Amino acid sequence: MFTVLTGAQFGDEGKGKIVDLMSKDYDIIVRFQGGDNAGHTVTVGDDVYKLHLIPSGFLYNARVLIGPGVVLNPEVLADEIDMLEKSGCNVEPEKLGVDSKTSVIMPYHIELDNLRESALTEKIGTTKRGIGFAYVDKVARNEIQFSDLTDKNKLIEKLSELAPQKKNDIEFLGGDPSIVMDEELIDKYVKLGKKLEPYMADVSYEVNKAIDNGKSVMAEGAQGTHLDVIHGTQKYVTSSSTIAGSACSSIGVGPTKVTNVLGIVKSYITRVGEGPLPTELNDEVGKHFQDVGREFGTTTGRPRRCGWIDLPLILKSINLNGYTGIALTKLDVLSELDPIKICVGYKLDGEYMEYPPQLTSDLSRCEPVYEELPGWKQDLTHVTEFGDLPEKAQKYVKRLEELMGVPVEYISVGPGRAQTFKNL
């Protein structure tokens, strides 16, 4: 079995929590894109794990992999391994594998990211972690790969070829070009490479072999569908392809091996950074979502912009990903609200539309059209099965299923592992 899991909105839908819940049924969990600009939080009892690279399945017996479509900051990975080991979770090479061809985020990528974002009049809202510039080098075939960090001479040779251009780019943006060939930084990265070398793996081969041998594999995406570099709200997107099809190309698995695709949908919608958010609320309801939902970025700490759930964007996500099922998260956050609204369409220049316009500039001008449902004003955090939800909460979930045309397979009513249940 090969399952692909992606976020259906703008990220922060609760993917880490759902992966953690499902991991007990999988032999391998593999991250297929993004970098440490992603963040997922897993809560088990009183323990809270905040991760940026290592897939959530590390708490179970599943082997976790970082695929070659990811861009890797080796310092962040080493820190995560140390953090987990201090918490009593030993991350041995038998547990974690990193593809040898994974692109490395170098110090000059981070410097360029900071300089470019600071120079822009119209900000993108980047996390300033060098993700985009690492992907630029991957496409331009100027990348430093994970395997290069284990050989200082090879690393210096590659950096020497890249140095003139990188120095010019940094100098042009007003930065310090000496960072490109800084000897201390090179030594630091080589030391990290030696430390992480035992984790080196051939992820494509390992995943294909596992599927062929009847094992269960889950591909975990980062960010969300509408941050996809091709199909998202350009230019306010991430630098990788976040949709389900990217799992196949980024890991190196044929699409005929995909068994099912699970989309994670939050019961409202949030966005970090700039870009259109048609249902955004700057009122008490928006503040309720932010406060009760703890809507602050795992990676940046920035408050998330919040709004009512946006069905047109979800319908586009369903088309882009081919979802066979939905996991609905944070249903409990709606509990004190009445009425509850679902954006079922937009008005743009006097015209009604049930699907998002192609242009980001047009989406930013869309006015939401809402359908209202009665709220339930009851605590859901103790609920462990669908039948125990208040009738009005059940109607909300069933209405979403009807509008989406895809079954809701999981429902989350709180941050803890025990607060998510299968919707049988």
Automatic annotation (TrEMBL):
Protein's GO biological process: 'de novo' AMP biosynthetic process; IMP metabolic process
Cofactor: Mg(2+)
GO CC annotation terms, alphabetical: cytoplasm
Source superkingdom: Archaea
The record's free-text note on cofactor binding: Binds 1 Mg(2+) ion per subunit.
Membrane spanning stretches: none
HAMAP family reported in the protein's UniProt record: Adenylosucc_synth (MF_00011)
Protein name (Swiss-Prot/TrEMBL): Adenylosuccinate synthetase
Lineage: Archaea, Methanobacteriati, Methanobacteriota, Stenosarchaea group, Methanomicrobia
